[in-house]
Amino acid sequence: MAKRRTSKAPESAPSALTPAEPSAPAPLSVDPDPQAVFLLHTEYDLVEGKARSRLTSRRHLYIALAAVGVCLLMAWLAVRQAEENAALDARSGRAPAEVIARRIEAGRPQPRRLITYQFSLPDGRTFRREISVDAAEYDFYFVGSRLVVKFLPEQPELNTLLDRRLEVVESELLWLMLIAPPFLSLPVLLWALAQNILLTQYERRGVVVRGEVVECTGEERGSHYHVKLRYQFILPDLRIRRGTAHFVRDDLRGAKLPEKGAQVAVLYLNDWFYRLL
């Protein structure tokens, strides 16, 4: 009786119907080439994947210090002028005067009421001045009415009504000098603080990644050459980010600007904060 022969395929032979496992994708390189990268901001150098600034100062801090300096200077000038006003008023002279004219000047939000008075000194010199008064005073200062004025003996042109302070600079302006500079400087100080925090975070946690130029254009504006560069970059997790940078580069006037696809470097902190180097 003949034996039935059976053939058995070797276990090590792969099946032609079994699909091959896909190979893992090669990791995406995000490091820019220091030799090929175009740096829009010339104060940066790329060293071992880090952005190193050749500028040791932080310009925004100098702007903040300048704003504080202006506030202190204006306050000092206001105080000095207030002291001078007080000294002038203390040594002012007195003289009888007469109202010689009055008028109402249309204005917003309210019309101005003005009177003109005239007074004479013992040496025969005569002075006159038009001055603004409120509505209640205006009714009492009719033409021909008598009043008393104060004046600076060595400069009689500086004079006013007896119930007012003799001032070279009005008190309202001095108060404005004290209040306005700090109020206007507050946004500058807040901006400088935010810039300082952001720059510190860039230095500590920022990562330099490679990007590419989407479009780069330049134009003359006044005496400077302004460059506008649109760029994009891909993060290691394959997310794409885009941005636009503007900068003054007079040295690029007449030079060939980077073309589309040229390599740039981006200092990346997070999805909300990144900047072209």
Descriptive overview:
There is one protein chain. The protein has 277 residues and is α+β, with helices and mostly antiparallel strands. The protein has helices spanning 59-90, 135-138, 171-205, and strands at residues 44-47, 50-53, 93-105, 112-120, 126-133, 146-152, 155-161, 207-221, 224-234, 240-248, 263-268, 274-276. A five-stranded antiparallel sheet has the order 5-4-3-6-7. A five-stranded antiparallel sheet has the order 10-9-8-11-12, with no helix packed on it. Strands 1-2 form a two-stranded antiparallel sheet. Helix 1 (59-90) runs antiparallel to helix 3 (171-205). The longest helix is centred in the C-terminal third of the chain and has 35 residues, at 171-205. The relative contact order is 0.16.
